[in-house]
Design a protein that fits this description.
The chain is built from 13 helices and 15 strands. It has an eight-stranded mixed beta barrel with strand order 7-8-10-11-12-13-14-15, surrounded by four helices. Bound molecules: ligand C2E and calcium ion (2 copies). One calcium ion binds next to strand 12.
C-alpha cells in the first residue's frame, strides 16, 4: 500500500486498512488483489511452511457511511460475507447485507425464547431393518414453529443456535423431549425401540454435557441401551484426542451407542473409525440420491458397507426414496434404511400409528 494509507491491527487477527484518495472501485480492486497475493506468499519458519489466507471486506466513504463506526461495521459484515465464500476473497458492502443481518439478529432473538414459549417440537423418522421391515429406531428431528413466520427448517436455525451458543439449552430440551417420548413408547411397546438424537459438536464439547445427559436419563427413566447419539465428523477436527475420546468411551460404558452422521461429506479420515468407539455409520443422502445411475456412488457405498462390516460397525443408508434404491442397498447388505421410501419424519402420534401398522401385532399393545 502507499505511504499515505494507514494499516492498523483492530484486534485478534483483524486488521483495518484505510485507503485514502481513491476515486474508483477498480482502483481499489487492484490494491486488494495485490494484498491477497502478498498474503498468500508462504511464510517459512525453522520448522515448517505456513500458508496464510485472508478475507477482505470493503466499505466506501461516503456511499456506505459517513462516520467511522458505520464504515467499520459495514466492512466487518462484508468481511464475514467474503469469509463464507471461501478463502482469499473480498467482498464490497451491499445494502442488502443490512437486511440480512437484521433478519439474522431477529431470528436469534426469537430463538432465545423459543424453548420457553414452547415453539420447539420433535418429529420422528423411523430407521428400518429392510429384511424384516421392522422399525429398529427412530431419529428425533427438531422443528421450530416460529411465531409469525410459521415453521423454520432446522437447516436454517440450527446454525444460528450454534453460533449464538443457544444450541446448549436447545439441545438439552431436545434430549429431554426425545427421552421422555422414548420412555413413554417403551412402556407401552413390548418390542424395545431405540431413539437416535442429533448432538451438535458445540453441545458435545460443552463441559456439562455428560452431567446433563446423566440427569436426563435419570429423570426420564430411559434405558441407556436404547439411546443413540448422532455426531458428525467435524467433532474430530479440533481437539482430536483425549477429551472427545474419553467422553465417547464413557458414553459407551453406560450402554449408549454412537452414530457417525452424514458419513462421507466431511474430511473422512478413516483413522478415527479405528480409534473412536463408533457403533453406526450413517451414509449421507448425497451418495444415495443417484445410486441407481452413478457407478461411483455404487462403488463408494459398497466399499463403506464392506469396511464397516470388517470394523463391526452397522450401516444406515439415509435418504432412501425408492424401492429400487432400497433393493440395491439390501443387495449390498446394508443393515438399516432411513428415508421417504419407508416414511417421512412424523409427529409422535403419527409415528405411533406407523408402528402399530408396521410391527407385528403380537409384539405391540399400544
Ligand atoms: P440429518 O441429521 O442428516 O437428518 C436427516 C434429514 O434428512 C432430515 O431433514 C430428514 O427429514 C431428511 N430426510 C430423511 N429422509 C429423506 C429422504 O428420503 N429424502 C430427502 N430428500 N430427505 C430426507 P431435517 O429434519 O430438515 O433436518 C436437517 C438437519 O438439521 C439434520 O440433518 C440435522 O443436521 C439438523 N437437525 C435436525 N434436528 C436436529 C436436532 O435435534 N439437533 C441438532 N443438533 N441438529 C438437528
Ligand atoms: Ca442425523
Ligand atoms: Ca444425516
Amino acid at each position: 500500500i502507499r505511504e499515505t494509507d494507514t494499516v492498523s491491527r483492530f484486534g485478534g487477527d483483524e486488521f483495518i486498512i484505510l485507503i485514502d484518495n481513491t476515486n474508483h472501485r477498480h482502483e481499489l480492486k487492484m490494491i486488494i488483489d495485490k494484498l491477497i497475493r502478498c498474503l498468500s506468499t508462504p511464510v517459512e519458519t525453522s520448522k515448517e511452511t505456513l500458508h496464510i489466507s485472508g478475507s477482505i471486506g470493503i466499505s466506501v466513504y461516503p456511499d456506505d457511511g459517513t462516520d467511522i463506526s458505520t464504515l467499520i461495521r459495514c466492512a466487518d459484515m462484508s468481511m464475514y460475507k467474503a469469509k463464507a465464500q471461501g478463502k482469499d476473497t473480498y467482498c464490497f458492502f451491499e445494502n442488502k447485507m443490512n437486511i440480512e443481518i437484521h433478519e439474522y439478529l431477529a431470528m436469534e432473538n426469537q430463538l432465545r425464547s423459543a424453548v420457553a414459549n414452547q415453539e420447539l417440537e420433535l418429529e420422528y423418522q423411523p430407521i428400518i431393518n429392510p429384511l424384516t421391515n421392522k422399525v429398529y429406531a427412530t431419529e428425533a428431528l427438531v422443528r421450530w414453529n416460529r411465531d409469525s413466520e410459521g415453521r423454520v427448517p432446522p437447516d436454517k436455525f440450527i446454525p444460528i443456535a450454534e453460533e449464538s451458543g443457544l444450541i446448549v439449552p436447545i439441545g438439552e430440551w431436545i434430549l429431554r423431549a426425545a427421552c421422555t417420548q422414548l420412555a413413554d413408547w417403551n412402556q407401552h411397546l413390548s418390542a424395545e425401540l431405540k431413539m437416535s438424537i442429533n448432538i451438535s459438536t458445540l453441545q458435545f464439547k460443552d463441559n456439562d454435557f455428560d452431567k446433563m445427559l446423566l440427569n436426563v436419563i435419570k429423570e426420564t427413566g430411559v434405558n441407556p441401551l436404547n439411546l443413540n447419539l448422532e455426531i458428525t465428523e467435524n467433532l474430530f477436527l479440533e481437539d482430536r484426542e483425549s477429551h472427545i475420546f474419553t467422553t465417547l468411551q464413557d458414553l459407551r460404558t453406560q450402554g449408549i451407542s454412537i452414530s457417525l452422521d452424514d458419513f462421507g461429506t466431511g474430511y473422512s479420515s478413516l483413522s478415527y473409525l479405528k480409534h473412536f468407539p463408533i457403533n453406526v455409520l450413517k451414509i449421507d443422502r448425497s451418495f444415495i440420491t443417484d445410486i441407481i445411475d452413478d457407478q461411483n456412488d455404487q462403488s463408494l457405498v459398497k466399499a463403506i458397507i464392506n469396511m464397516a462390516e470388517g470394523l463391526n460397525i452397522k450401516v444406515v443408508a439415509e435418504g432412501v426414496e425408492t424401492e429400487q434404491q432400497c433393493e440395491l442397498l439390501i443387495d449390498y447388505q446394508c443393515d438399516y434404511i432411513q428415508g421417504y421410501y419407508f416414511s417421512k419424519p412424523k409427529s409422535a402420534e403419527e409415528l405411533q400409528h406407523f408402528l402399530r401398522q408396521s410391527q407385528k401385532p403380537a409384539l405391540i399393545s399400544l
